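haha ok so turns out i had the wrong file open the whole time. this is the CORRECT one, sorry everyone. sequence first:
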Amino acid sequence: MESLIEFTLFAPRNQGAVLVGSFSDWQEIPIQKGEDGYFRTQIQLKDGVYQYKFRVQTKSPNFAPDEWLDVIDPKATDVNETEKHAIVRIKDGQRIVDTYFWQHDEMPLPNNRELVIYEMHVADFTGDEVDPDKRGKYLGVIAKLDYLRELGINAIELMPVNEYPGNYSWGYKVRHFFATESSYGSTEDLKRLIDECHARGIRVFIDAIYNHTDEGCPLLLIDRNYWYYEQKHYPEDPDNYWGPEFNYDNYDEKLNLKPAWKYIGDVVKFWIEEYHIDGIRFDAVRQLANFEFLDWLAKQTKKHAAPKDFYNIAEHIPDTNTIVKPHGPLDACWHESFHYFVVPYICGKSFELEQLKQILDPRKQGYATAINVINYLATHDQQRLLRELGDAGIFDAEAFKRAKLAAVLLITAMGIPMLWMGEEFGEYQQKSESVTQPKNIAWSLLKSDQNHNLFEYYQKLIALRQQNLALQSDNIEFFHENANDKVLAYSRWDKQDSHVVVVVNFSALNLTRYEIPNFPTAEYWQDWFGKCEVETQEDSLVTDLPSYTAKVFVWQ
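then structure:
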């Protein structure tokens, strides 16, 4: 039985277009353009899988006027980059992406305040798998989900999973916005990964690039200056130009629409409805620089995802409170200043109390709530902490001691903590020099006592954050600071029965029987890592503070 299947191409300024495909033995099928700017035709097709592409008279200045070019459908949900065609699947007379059946949509997921995020690159995270069906694949991530749950992770942030040229890349130059990266596995595999995350109470965020595209993006081939800025958006900042940039200012008066808004709005709707994602990290927001568009897009995400929580995160470097609510368009911003200042403190290169207090309490930087900032020690863009320590001449036991201090700051600061894959056990590989150079995680490090001990330290800290609402709150107070001895003490609290105090020694000296005055009142405090009760006397606590160490006290 055959059904009428519609093929459409939005190309309002192009003179002509035809459809070619396996269903026509690659012979041209004429298609007509309507007044709405769409070329449309309907083809009688049986259920099955077909290949196709469009042939258009380009309006892009890179080519001769009205030159005929073969282009992949800009809305193709599956592509073959090698053969340069799109793939369409028909089942029961309808277009489908695949036949995956979701099983865990009803599972409760953590709210934004509860999050502990784990950033990963699919191929590098799974590059050690012996099974070729899992190595570098979504299925390999599924095999490690119980490890992440054991660590305490309840959200993963996937580096870009859109189809890109070749079989390895970071993925930050997107060519096909509706298609998934085929080297990682099938669309069903990606859905299974997200479904299995949800089964374990883990939310899934995707890294999305809406500022720029790859030079081979079909939109650029069809009509470059309709979709993109004709020149660089910010010519004064050439170091942050990564490819042709979407023109969100372009308004088509004849059709009464902003084409880039409409296209990316459709992309976001598709990913939420088809892949059930729980949030988006928006790449290069400072370069995109259109708050009106981002506000509209963020509202679209909330509408499409309702009733579940959706988290919109900006990568805006340097970070700024203007990009986040209550006055900005998005929910959160990568807190680059946290990384920028904490790492030198951990390495002993500098120490400035007021700076430190600002990054631990982002309200001092103008942020309103804990969910406005994503704190991190490293990401794919930075060197790992153990590498930074090594470059500073700090190795072995001393390096791991300082990594634990950094972990305490990360998990107990006001904000949402994020780990870069492998950080929890001391991965130390140098940052990739090239976005096409694989850097597989060295999982064998976990067999080392030092590395496994760091993993367990992170595990205990994350468990405390999940159990104690004080660390999810907007409350933080610095009640003791000593610039000479490089000591800072702060308290976090939520309700009367939820209280955490952190005391940090940033010096190279062991401080014996150090007295901390004005210690919050409680009958007993538990030393979270010392596993013992401590008593305050006359509103002060006396304790030993080894060099570059943090102590965590929990009100019992």
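Residues 449-467 form the longest helix (19 residues).
again sry for the mixup
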